[in-house]
Prior knowledge:
Largest sheet: 2 strands, antiparallel
Order of helices and strands: HHHEEHH
Structural class: mainly alpha
Low-confidence stretches: 5-16
Mean pLDDT: 77
Shape: flat
Strand order of the largest sheet: 1-2
Distance between the termini: 33 Å
Bound molecules: zinc ion
Amino acid sequence: MIQSGLIYSRVFSGCTSRSESQILGAMSKLDKVVAESRKNSEARGHSYREQALKMYPWICTKCTREFSRENISELTVHHKDHNHDNNPQDGSNWELLCLYCHDNEHMRHLDAAATKVNAGNERTGTHATGKPFANLKDLLDRQR
Ligand SMILES: [Zn+2]
Ligand SMILES: [Zn+2]
C-alpha cells in the first residue's frame, strides 16, 4: 500500500512542469482560498459529510452494516472527538456510523460526561480537570 502511494506521488510530481498559466493560477489561489473558507464555514454541515462519504467505504464502523445509494441517508458522520468544528481534511476525526450506532455513541458520551461531572462535584466541588475520556475505556470494557 505504501509502495503504490509512492508510485502515485512520483507520477504526479513528474508531470508538473510550471507553465505561465499555473503561476497565474497560484496567484489567484489566495482569492480562491478565502472564498473557499467562507463557503466551507457556511456549508460545513454538508461538505464534511460528502467528503467523508467519498473517503470511506459506505459501511457503519460499529456494526459493519453496508449502505447503498438508496439508504445512504441513514449513514451519518460522527466526530471522534465530538467536536463538529474539528474537520481535518485527512478525515482523521470522522467515523461513519449508522443512525443507531451514532445514537449509542452519543448516549455513551453523555453518560460518561455526566458521571465525570457528578463525581467531580461531589468530591471537591471544583472544575473537573484532566482527560474527558478517562473513564470511557472502563465503560466500554464493562459493556463487553
Ligand atoms: Zn451501525
Ligand atoms: Zn457524532
